[in-house]
Amino acid sequence: MAGAVIEVKYFNTFLLKKVNTSSNQVVWNGSRGIPENIGGYPAIPGLNDDETWVIEESRIRGGYNNTTVDFGAKAYLVEEEPNGTRRFNTLIYSGIFNSRTGINNTNVFSVADDITKSADPANGSIQKLYAEDTNLNIFQELKCSRALIDKDAIFTAEGNPAVTASNLVIGVIQPINGKYGISKNPESFATYGNRKYFSDENNNVVLRLAGGGIEEISSYGMKDFFRDEINKINSAGSLGKILGSYDIYGSEYVISLQSPSRYREATTRTSSSLYNTLNFDERAQGWVSFFDYAPDQMFSLRNNFYSVKSNAGSATVVASGTGFTFSINNIVGFIQQYSIVTGTGITAGTTVSSFTPDSNDPTKGSITITPGATLSAGNTLSFTAVPQLWRHYDASVNRGNFYGANYPSSITFVFNPNPTNSKTFKTVGYEGSNGWQVDTFSSDSTGATLSVDGLGYNSSEDTTDRIISGFDSVSTLSYNDGEYVLTEGKASVAINTTSANVVLNLSTFTGYVNAGDVVTSSSLQSQRTVVSYNNATGALVLNQSGTLNAGDVLHFSGVVNRSNYLSVFNTVNPPLSKYYSGFNRKENKYVANLLNFSNPNSAEVLYGQNISGIKGFYATVKMSTDKTTDFGGEKTLFSVESTYDMNNGY
């Protein structure tokens, strides 16, 4: 191996060895240099590495007393126990930051200074810190405390604290009265003014910290509810969350209890308690409303309330094709730009470039995907969730619309006058906006009664619950939905017939005839029902055959609901007298009779539609907004009432 002797002029000159690797990468004394292809030193093929040297001067321009490089200060520390420890109950603070002077020591944690402050480890880990003026609020799992900032407290001989200025960053930690903490739900914390709101899962309560004291706001009429629902947040080893935020627009604390099963993207709040989102209003000193949404995050900004929601989606391809843009239908959930698309014929990593919904049908639209694909009609496409920001109280969308879905508003209350007497509730009425309906009106339960076969216990109640065609779970229709007209018609038979097919003489026809109308005639022994009618040919089909001769007169009578006005009369306001099967309006007050649809009880002679009203000591009523009257508009409800009679013998 060849060697070389190189004399250098100054003692501070660096003698560096340059090595070129096979991939044309330069290595200086074991450190990578700059390759030739980006402006570095060239690699000389066939040159012996031992002869490849370079001398670099450590001083600027090689001057004798010019500025030289320096290693700088070196810190040497011998750690007897170099392993890290997690002090879950301890606070640590760094050096100062001063933007005016340019000092930034936020990454300096000097072990020479006392920069830690520990809370009682028996109260669990520190979950949340909130600085307030010159105090630091400390929220542990089992305890809330307050530490002084830039001051300390000394105590008199009597044990009374006196605050004094100090060079301590964090002073004495002072516990706040009450054995409450924030558990492991710091996401429930929200603040406004001097009030701090948070939950304590360990005690199944929701709390407010204000004025130096803690108060259980969950006990304001909702103690049992929060006791049961918070207890179900974490189940079977899966963690839910308790999300809290202050709604600055509505001036209320909003809390969302979300169990683990909620993450399967439930679309509605049900009795299975996938989630419960509700609000606390300081003005009412109570819990005001439940909401039909489960946010991922909530916050207030510039007098507006926002939430973030991620929802997955799915759709079906309408027509087979190859390309980038496809028509889709059966849309469920959300389709958003940048969502990842999966499905038959879709390559991995395909995303949504754009999505255009149908302006008339929200379940239809078109998507453009990148890259393109070959898809078959009927293929199901799935779209991953992408977070979206939503502003609440937006006047441009329907009321009760959350994350693109409409929900009816409802209220449940109890009629309980003269609680020790049995009553018959005869009517229900309210003052407020048009568009309210009664979903259920039920009496108190009879309690557990041994069944006839002796194999179990049954309970019963009087109720107005029934099935109305075209309406879901409605016992008393709203003023608009319950509106109907009575139609009458008359025509003579044109041709003798003994079948259910009849031809009418169009020149004798007056009035109306529609499918479902009742048909009577002196030539028929019993009434018939219209199956279909062609007003151009006079062809009439009845539900039952009969003997009819030419010239026999048929009479038709029927009912047309408001929802069918346009299809039957070609107008939404036919020139006929209006009747109401639900609420009727008089002097801006809405009243309806209560129809009994109860099953018979033991030894009960008259029941159901044979009697009027609902019997019971009290009644539970649920009212909600309908789906047609000024849909998405404002609905008010000022008062609700019911007339009743006292039952004899009670």
Key phrases:
flat; 41% strand; 51 strands; 6 domains; 2% helix; mainly beta; 650 residues
Textual characterization of the structure:
By secondary structure, the chain is mostly beta strands. The protein folds into 6 domains: 13-62, no CATH class; 124-176, no CATH class; 183-310 and 387-407; 313-386, Elongation Factor Tu (Ef-tu), domain 3 (Beta Barrel); 410-480 and 581-646, no CATH class; 483-579, Thrombin, subunit H. The chain is built from 2 helices and 51 strands. Strands 38, 39, 40, 41, 42, 43, 44 and 45 form an 8-stranded antiparallel β-sheet that branches. A 6-stranded antiparallel β-sheet has the order 25-28-23-24-27-26, with no helix packed on it. Strands 3-2-1-4 form a 4-stranded antiparallel β-sheet, with no helix packed on it. A hairpin with a 5-residue loop joins strand 1 and strand 2. The longest helix is centred in the middle third of the chain and has 9 residues, at 223-231.
